[in-house]
Amino acid sequence: MKDFDYAAPTTIDDAVGLLAKHNGRAKLLAGGTDLIVQLREFFREADVVVDVKKIAEVMDLRVEADGRLWIGAGVPCYRIYRDERVANSRGGLVDAARIIGGWQIQSRASIGGNLCNSSPAADSIPALIAERAVCHVAGPGGRRTVAVDEFCTAPGKNVLAAGEMLVGIEHPATAAKSASAYERFIPRNEMDIAVVGLGSWVRLDPTGKTIAEARIGLGAVAPTPLFAAEASQWLSGKPATEETFAQAGELAKKIAKPISDMRGPADYRVHLVGVLVRRTLATAVSRAAS
Amino acid sequence: MPRKHHIETTINGESTDFLCEARQSLLEVLRDTLHLTGAKEGCNNGNCGACTVLLDGQPVDSCLVLAVEVQGASIETVEGIAECGHLHAVQQCFLEDAALQCGVCTPGFIVAAKALLDRKPQPTEEDIRFDLAGNLCRCTGYDKIVRAVQNAAERLAAK
Ligand SMILES: Cc1cc2nc3c(=O)[nH]c(=O)nc-3n(C[C@H](O)[C@H](O)[C@H](O)COP(=O)(O)OP(=O)(O)OC[C@H]3O[C@@H](n4cnc5c(N)ncnc54)[C@H](O)[C@@H]3O)c2cc1C
Ligand code: FES
Ligand code: FES
After folding, report:
1. Domain coordinates of chain A in residue numbers?
2. pLDDT tens profile A168-188
3. Which residue among A55, A124, B43, B158 has its CA within the 20 to 30 Å range from the CA of A30?
4. Rounded (5°) CA angle A121-A125-A128
5. Does ipTM top 0.95?
6. CB B13 less than 6 A from any atom of ligand 2
7. Which of A14, A22, A34, A114 to mutate to test the pocket of ligand 1 (most atoms within 8 A of CB)?
């Protein structure tokens, strides 16, 4: 690995200051499970690596009284799935956090890093889209928010401008009878990259039999993770049945524009979108009902 | 000359300090600077788990941790697992159950399996297979390794 310097600021202002000072030659480090590999394999270069893990806000995992959830950009996966408050309310994100790499990776890998690495197949992003999460960004111009749906712009690219960093991800307040689920399809049981990743969130009406609102996020079927707007809107008011889940799957398939690669041909990936929409909606509905 | 950082940590219960460059991994420093050669370099990219150590109690791939990041942290390596000259139950069972051949993966498996049993003293077979998915073995096959961990769990429970 090429030599670089290391800084571990304790405030967002200092971190943003370092990014400005080094003018594109500073790289942010959370768990390092993407960044260190990329530096080592010369995909990326840095003059200075700025470790965000000493910034309290970035390492905070907090649930507010109304159920809003703050996940600091550096919080590693294991803290998310070990936290019962999160497990009960954001099942989809927890499903994703449990399968990002193995245990050793989950000890380090953050959801913020997963988002900022902006891989089309990143496991947390479809779940975050389904759960309507919002990114909090800080930069030289101050703070702003961006919906996770709009965060990624191309493989490995996102809306962060020069000198900006992700501070954390916020989930909205929880609603009664709502829940989410994430599933990916891979040829083995663990430690692989998604052929398709799928997050679904539902809110049921008070009877528990009808879907009041739903959101579906797709991964690995386009240059960026996608929000399946038509399928999501169509689900409002529909009975929570297998028939409905299958039809939503057909609608979600329309926006899947995958590539063919060693993990699977495009038509197979499109087919999997239908299968996983059905499965994740069924899981989310049963979680919401219980 | 690249700048050297002075890092103070606790390794296997002893306070330890060392000098390192920012680009050096914890694995490099453990092996080359501190001569703790138990952790192995298999892939150097987070896939094989041969370099597993505990960082503040959590298993991590030491090839994906920068040595500068461990300032103030506590690290446990495979060298610290035997107690007072006696092999830990996990080590003893790996030996007795022939859960190793070339042995390159073994230190990583031992560290991860010990962490697993500390958290879940009575793991199911699925727990073991799932939690050890980040450790790869190219020779032994996983069945013997899983059985060794199951036997270690029984032995620890009987204590
Ligand atoms: C063996 C292995 C298995 C893996 N398995 C999976 C898997 O199953 N699913 C999956 O989705 N991914 C997987 N990954 C990829 C990786 O672990 C994840 O993307 C992880 O979530 C990245 O988080 P990190 O904290 O390690 O990020 P880092 O590597 O620290 O950072 C990732 C990127 O984000 C930038 N960054 C970090 N923090 C910030 C911030 N606060 N603001 C702006 N930019 C920032 C970094 O500069 C870098 O470009 C795997 C990786 C390995 C090595
Ligand atoms: S050498 Fe670190 S995971 Fe393989
Ligand atoms: S014993 Fe050789 S790699 Fe596991």
Report:
1. 5-51, 56-171, 178-289
2. 999 999 999 999 999 999 887
3. B43
4. 160
5. yes
6. no
7. A34
